[in-house]
Amino acid sequence: MSSNPDNPATANTDWLDKHGLSDRQRLFVLAYLDTPNATQSAEKAGYRHGKTQGPRLLDNVGVRNAIKEGRAMIEQKLMLDAEGIARMWADIATADPNELTQHIHAPCRFCWGQGHEYQWKTEREFRETKARKVFDLFSDDDLREAEMAGTIEDPRIPDDAGGYGYRLTDDPNPDCPECSGLGIEVSRMSDTRKLKGGAKLLFDGGKISRLQMVAHFSVRFSEGSLTIHS
Ligand SMILES: [Zn+2]
After folding, report:
1. Are 37 and 47 spatial neighbours (Cβ–Cβ below 8 Å)?
2. For residue 23, is pLDDT > 70?
3. For the whole prediction, is pTM greater than 0.85?
4. In the predicted model, what is the mean pLDDT of the chain?
5. Domain locations in the chain as residue ranges
């Protein structure tokens, strides 16, 4: 027979061995644990007259004990599931959203530039920005070359008087005349692969909706037709 893999009593049936049941009685117990209907369960187990055999099977002491044990297993599993779910919601409720996003105050480009001039990250950044500007402003090749070589001064072309070494990870300069030490605010999402605990659940929450969780929860509960008092 097909058994419900989520049902701890029917997923593995070794626990039934000690009850000394016939093969058909075992099948009846398993069917009854999935759906507590004596007639249907007897028919599923292969009894020809389910309507009369079903109730009779429920009177059998061995069958009754087996059902009792199976239900206890299901109940225990449901309690563990419920506990796990409750713990998960508690973790979400107490999670720190700051773990998901980080706001940092980085220096502005003038904070640490020489003479508080615009500071470039690297020479490459300066060179490429300058080349783009020259290319945009001039169409004549000779002029472009002269601009790149620096033989013609043009205020529209960026210079590197502020020097290099700008880094977002530095602190703003409190003496900066441009930003007064406030710097610029940079937000970034945490590396979600490294999230743990509640923050990870918060992030996963974007993928698993509350509705899905509730649906999952209800299915588990109806399986054992139990009342859980929380
Ligand atoms: Zn600044």
Report:
1. no
2. yes
3. no
4. 83
5. 8-96+204-224, 101-193
